[in-house]
Amino acid sequence: xxxxxxxxxxVNQKLTEMGERERLKELLRAKLTECGWKDQMxxxxxxxxxxxxxxxxxxxDLVVEITPKGRALVPDSVKKELLHRIRAFLAQHAT
Amino acid sequence: MKMEEVSMSSxxxxxxxxxxxxxxxxxxxxxxLGLCFxxxxxxxxxxxxxDDTDQESMRDFEIxxxxxxxxxxxxxxxxxxxxxxCPNCSRSIAASRFAPHLEKCLGMGRNSSRIANxxxxxxxxxxxxxESDQEDNDDVNDNxxxxxAEKKAKKRKSDKxxxxxxRSKSFKHKSNMMGPRRRMDNQESPRMxxxxxxxxx
Lengths: 95, 201
Hints:
Chain B: One of its GO terms (biological process) is chromatin organization. The complex is a heterodimer. In chain A, 83% of the residues lie in helices and 0% in strands. In chain A, α2 runs antiparallel to α5 (76-93) and α3 runs antiparallel to α4. Chain A has one domain (3-93): ENY2/SUS1 (Serum Albumin, Chain A, Domain 1), CATH 1.10.246. The two termini of chain A are 21 Å apart. Chain A has 5 helices and no strands. By secondary structure, chain B is mainly α. Chain B is built from 10 helices and 2 strands. The termini of chain B are far apart. The model of chain B is unreliable at 129-136 and 182-189 (pLDDT under 50). Chains A and B meet through α1, α2, α3, α4 and α5 of A and α1 and α2 of B.
């Protein structure tokens, strides 16, 4: 394993151990709902479901259709705020 | 597990930044997956489309966005210019002034008894007709800042009961003032001499 991947594993572990990962997840979820991202994505889901048929849609279908669009639609302000928190954590606990 | 100091310090900012981006990416993917699972379960359990109704109802209750209307499509300032008829005095009053007018008219508000008393006092001295002809009689009386109310307030003070205890007090006060003044007047102007003084000299 390379130095970086070891580092990454360590950081991730620390994030989880300190509960920061959970907090970040909650924060992200709240921000995404606030800014309307969730509603947008739900509307997209409806289209996918109507396309594939209510009975036959699988998790895989949804994941494949939703994830790329979801990543692209996250607003910059939300990204910035999350990054800020992450950087602060890294600065405090990684150096 | 302790962080390896060596590997930490050798990392430059760009690597830290890349790491931060990675973590963000993980979190976003987590959120997307969460949403997918939520939606999939809702679909399979049958409650995903519950908040949708038929097209026609959706159109009926759509949010209205026109000027002059609220979101339900109702006109929201149509009561501004309406007039109501007072059941007590049968006058036609503007809607926004109706509640205060009723208060005075029925004798039920906080100040209505005070105003009624005031009116009784002035009613004895001046002509009643001129006051009742004013349309906004009630407003002028309870509005502290209007010039008309001030004038009436001043007038009423002078109309106070001449037999009230206050009046006699002022006489008492005058007689008290006589004492010290007397001596002064003696020296300066002989005209101010009181009867008593003439004798005491």
